[in-house]
Amino acid sequence: MSTPLNPTRRQFLGSIAAGSAGVMMSTSGHVFGASSPSDRPVFATIGLRNQGWTITDKSTKFADFAAFADVDADVLGSNIEKLENKTGKKADGYKDYRKLLERDDIDAVMIGAPDHWHTKISVEAMLAGKDVYCEKPLTLTIDEGKLIEKIVKQTGRVFQVGTMQRTECSQRFVKAVALIRDGRIGEVRRVTCGINGATGSPVIPAIDVPEGLDWDMWLGPAPMVPYRALPEMRKGYGGGVPLYTNCHYAWRNWYEYSGGQMNDWGAHHVDIATWALGASDTGPNKVTPVSYSLPVEYENGYPTVSDQYNSPTKFEIHANMPGDIPMIITSEGDNGILFEGTKGRFFVNRGKLVGKPVEDLESNPLPEGAVEEVYGGPVSENHSANFIAAMNAREQPISDVWTHNRMLETCHLANISIRLGRELNWDPDARQIVGDEEANAFLSRESRKGYEIDM
Question: Which of 110, 146, 224, 300 is most buried, most CB within 10 Å of its CB?
């Protein structure tokens, strides 16, 4: 991509809000969001199952896809076919994403691989000169987040984290933040993030790896373990794979590859709550596991068995946020965020924004421009358009690495507190756990030999 113009942030966000109708022109005449294929950036997707295809599918309106990479031959082939059926163009397919990164015709990569792969692929993509769109949650550990921040700064690449509540379903959430900022519930006294619980699993036996799946590479940086699955198949979203497995879709239930519900849904609701509290450049000073249930026994923070899901099934975590405001992260109750203050309370999720302060907007609306002031410009409703406009402006998008990592640190700390079964004191400036060497060891992880980050 050629060197683009550098508009003000308000102009930049205004172009994003317009989506495909709003375009930005680079100095070479590229117009991102225009209908002409020659005016469109060239993308590639790494990790295509479920969300990987979803973000690709949404982005075909704004970008052309030259290549796909996936370690599962069936997933790779079916998605190449889907893209060709939709766009009339066939992407090149790779099992090894590094071959894709060697190409100089690709402007950006979209990463839909499991969480344990995010940091390695992201760093290597940026060092290869690509801008990056990576699905949430961005990291498996806190130190991974610090590394990504370092490489973004070092390379100057644009990096979008796929947290859709800041864009595609953002109207309710941005209005919720605006209500807080305008004092509609007075001083905030408590925030509750309901993020659903999970279920454990039966004992899952080790079986032969399915044909076409490179199991060694799927594991990548994670420890080498047998492939596990039971015959029962998953239905609905994520269907077509075993219901109980340590691979496709169900990897979210294993700490080796993910952070369970705490990171999966927490990356959405804790993000909005942190934004509303004005804490996007800091974090809690204490995280307390009030109650929790783990599906297997743990010793010294690690599961004692390897053939069952091991992430929490139920939990209530209290994070002490700036101003001594408690943020409660719970598996109980309605999925969404409850804000409580000295003058009232309201609830928001993807389907509703309700409560007396919301009802009062009919007779006492927010000041003109209040929502735009929170957002930094007109509110975008498309994550891909936001990313491409950011690429063109050479500015960071609405879901940037730094604010994402700060809120995700709360989720990571919650998981560490559950694994160790104790309260953690956190220094948000040093980004270290205070006085607990064992807990600090969980801020990083060692990659499996042969799958270290190539720097």
Answer: 110
